[in-house]
Amino acid sequence: MTTRLLLITAACLCSASTALADLNQYLIRTTEWLVEHSRVICVAEFADAKPDAVPKILSTMKGDAKTVNWPLKAPRFDGYYYYGPPASGMVRLLFIGGQQELWQAVDLVRQPIGAPTLHEAFYGVDQFGRVHLMESSLMKSVRAQLAAPRSAPVTRRRSAHFDRSGIEAPPYFPFENGGETFVLVVDFNERRRDHFVKQLSSGDCAERLHAINELAQLEDPSAHAAINAAQAASGVEPSYAFRWSDRLDQPQMDAIVRKAATAAYEKIEER
């Protein structure tokens, strides 16, 4: 089961080690980023009595677990704080970088909980904000990404304050609360670009506006061409399922998308 969420691109990210309007900011490594950057991905079984002992490798999904230097260590602190799923059980999915850097661990074979919290049910999140709430969902996603061909990188326009490739989660991201905000760590590549090019041509009004915002951040001819074409958008559907008023009819949806595309394209031409 996954929960699909709308994400908004952030032009710049602030360090999680500082408070932003009294909010603590955390980064979440997405499954796509973990699969791409991990040297070894494996399922390991740990013994409770010997937490630092070499675990039993149950399955290796990427790389060679025999080349890992145990015990694993946290990556060198980079000024950011990271949020991850529960990772203290005996059986864990491990994403390992370098020789012994533990990018992320995920508890597998969890004991059933009658009314789990969202954190207890959390297995990971993909680059488009779909939250994995079941082990089968996470494993299916990881396997699919491992089987897919590598996607070429796409240059993203950077600002003086831009520190890391990531997208800011909106206020209603499920882990947001009164004191914490989250940023999803992603790679900007052709697969991500093509996702939003398609969304800009076939999504509803809100989805197309989201796509314009995403594509406008890229220094890429295909992204710019899609925004240019959206200046003549037609047949755009409303973003809501039930109409309570006829004031926002389809022609007005077309106009909203066209206006946003024109504004974005004008800024692109100024660069």
Helix-strand pattern:
EEEHEEEEHEEHEEHHHH
Q: Mind telling me the C-alpha Rg?
A: 21 Å
Main β sheet profile: 4 strands, mixed
Shape: elongated
Number of strands: 11
* Uncertain stretches: 1-21
Record the SSE blueprint:
Elements: E1 2-3, E2 19-20, E3 23-29, H1 31-37, E4 40-45, E5 56-62, E6 91-97, E7 101-107, H2 118-121, E8 124-125, E9 131-132, H3 135-147, E10 166-168, E11 180-185, H4 190-202, H5 205-215, H6 221-229, H7 250-270
Parallel strand pairs: 3-11
Antiparallel strand pairs: 1-9, 2-3, 4-5, 4-6, 6-7, 8-9, 10-11
Helix pairs in contact: 1-3, 4-5, 4-6, 5-7, 6-7
Description:
This protein is of the alpha+beta class. The protein folds into two domains: 2-185, no CATH class; 190-270. Helices cover 29% and strands 19% of the residues. It contains seven helices and eleven strands. The chain has helices spanning 31-37, 118-121, 135-147, 190-202, 205-215, 221-229, 250-270, and strands at 2-3, 19-20, 23-29, 40-45, 56-62, 91-97, 101-107, 124-125, 131-132, 166-168, 180-185. Strands 2-3-11-10 form a four-stranded mixed β-sheet. Helix 4 (190-202) runs antiparallel to helix 5. It is elongated. The protein starts with a strand and ends with a helix.
Task: Name its key features.
271 residues, alpha+beta, 7 helices, elongated
Short description:
The protein has seven helices and eleven strands. It is an alpha+beta fold. The strands form three sheets. It has a four-stranded mixed sheet with strand order 2-3-11-10. Strands 5-4-6-7 form a four-stranded antiparallel sheet, covered by helices on one side.
